[in-house]
Amino acid sequence: SDLDAEGEVDDSIVEATVHTEQLEPGDRVLFYTDGVTEGHTTGGTPFGVERLGQFVIEHTAAGTAAPEMMRQLNHEIMDHQSGELRDDATVIMVEWRPGHPRRDLTAERT
What we know:
single chain; alpha+beta; 29% helix; flat
């Protein structure tokens, strides 16, 4: 078992599987928390990984721009849960857009 700094069992340690993938220009990567896929209707039906994947596949195939896809996905998630999240729900999409000026989120050096 995993121990924390005080030598006690730390139940918060999570095992992770690492995958690698070669990305190409135009590729998108979607990160999400379980609050998205496990969020459910008042009847108990979860949003689900399959529904999330299908949404992304359909909108990508239709040529929906990433910002618009995320806007629509946020509405879809909220609509599924009747406008009230019952858990934290985070979705982030990263898109490789070649030819665009670099946007660096770090402070510029002066």
